[in-house]
Design a protein that fits this description.
This protein has 373 residues and is an alpha/beta fold. It has 3 domains: 173 residues, Diaminopimelate Epimerase, Chain A, domain 1 (Roll), CATH 3.10.310.50; 115 residues, no CATH class; 48 residues, no CATH class. It has a 5-stranded mixed sheet, sandwiched between helices. The protein has a two-stranded antiparallel ribbon with strand order 5-6. Helix 3 links the parallel strand 2 and strand 3. Helix 2 packs parallel to helix 5.
Length: 373
């Protein structure tokens, strides 16, 4: 009974896999179109172009049109079809397959190894997007295929020109939505506003921190030796002049991103307001976070105790591995082993990093590209 149950499970799995992958039909040179997306006249013209490309550009091309991919990727299906139909000449590997999954609106160009030099993946992708896509969006399947075949042939043979006996397809006019032009003025305005905010906020910020520290010391003079007032925290003028280089650096580098954000994305005045509010809230949070330890003597003493506890824990870890020693006066001192490890770490960081490379084989199709329309 158990064996029969396992057999049923196994057969179910096999059937599901069979349904997941589309069956590759027999090859009908050189257009495989079992669902008749092309008329006979259109199929004949595509076939004649394929023969011309074969004779004059040495590309053994084929076309496969199917309704849908099912659960299989277009890359896997194209590779299976390429292998089954053995496209291209032995020794030249000059086969090429154009696959159109009509219901899924997906397309792929699969190339043989011998075509990779003339038609690399990036070129195949460009032909999909620039030749096939406009015609397929206009429901001109035949023109899409002819246009792509001609473009591929010209990549293989620079002097290839479609013969006069063929009707050269003309790219359809594609409606594109109106695009907002880059608003450079908006970008410079926002950059200027940002620069003024930084120049104004920096000294105010520094003086505010200084006042908090002085207020803290006034409440508990014993904390004076634990609180250091920097020059830029003592007066507004010093706050403006001290660290001006760092201020300008901050204006330049975050500022360029604000400039780009403004010209490309901030096309609605509502976004201007949202962005300004967001920046203000962010700066307010940073100010609160960096100055919260000066809120009161009790908060500052707790901050000092936390810092001392972290320092004690770190030094004990260093003592345990021989990188520090406890002196008779209760202070810690670094050992020679610590300085040696720091020197080794610095030398390791400055040395060149090792690199690795990998290589692997490709599919029977060699390469190609996929896209959609």
């Amino acid at each position: 009974m158990k064996t029969n149950f396992l057999i049923v499970i196994w057969l179910t799995i096999l059937v599901s896999f069979a349904h997941a992958a589309s069956d590759i039909p027999a090859f009908t040179p050189n257009v495989v179109d079992p669902n008749a997306y092309l008329t006979e006249a259109e199929k004949d013209e595509v076939n004649r172009v394929i023969q011309d490309v074969r004779a004059r550009a040495d590309i053994h091309a084929a076309v496969y049109l199917l309704p849908a991919l099912g659960d299989e990727s277009i890359e896997a299906l194209a590779e299976r079809a390429f292998k089954k139909w053995a496209l291209g000449q032995a020794g030249k590997d000059n086969g090429l397959l154009i696959v159109l999954a009509m219901g899924d609106r997906k397309m792929r160009i699969e190339t043989g190894y011998g075509l990779e030099g003339d038609i690399p993946d990036v070129v195949a992708k460009r032909i999909l997007d620039e030749q096939l896509r406009p015609f397929l969006r206009a429901n001109q399947i035949k023109n899409a295929l002819v246009s792509a075949l001609v473009a591929l042939a010209q990549k293989r043979s620079k002097d290839y020109v479609l013969g006069a006996e063929f009707q050269a397809p003309v790219l359809p006019a594609v409606e594109t939505p109106d695009e907002e032009p880059m608003d450079l003025t908006r970008g410079f305005i926002w950059w200027g506003v940002f620069a003024l905010v930084v120049l104004g906020v920096h000294p105010c910020w520094a003086r505010s921190v200084g006042r908090k520290k002085m207020k803290l010391v006034a409440a508990d003079p014993k904390l004076k030796r634990k609180v250091s007032l920097k020059p830029l925290e003592r007066s507004f003028l010093k706050a403006f002049t001290t660290g001006l280089g760092a201020t300008l650096f901050f204006i330049l580098f975050p500022g360029i991103f604000i400039f780009l954000f403004a010209i490309f994305l901030m096309t609605d005045p509502v976004l201007d307001i949202s962005f300004a509010v967001g920046v203000s809230v962010f700066l307010g949070f940073i100010y609160w976070f960096t100055t919260r330890k000066y809120a009161s003597p009790d908060v500052f003493r707790k901050y000092l105790a936390d810092q001392a506890a972290k320092h004690e824990a770190r030094m004990k870890r260093l003592v345990a591995i021989g990188h520090a020693a406890l002196e008779p006066d209760g202070r810690y001192a670094f050992t020679a082993a610590y300085y040696e490890s720091e020197r080794s770490r610095a030398e390791s960081n400055s040395s060149s990093s090792s690199s690795s490379s990998s290589s692997g084989g490709g599919s029977s199709g060699g390469g190609g590209a996929s896209s959609s329309w």
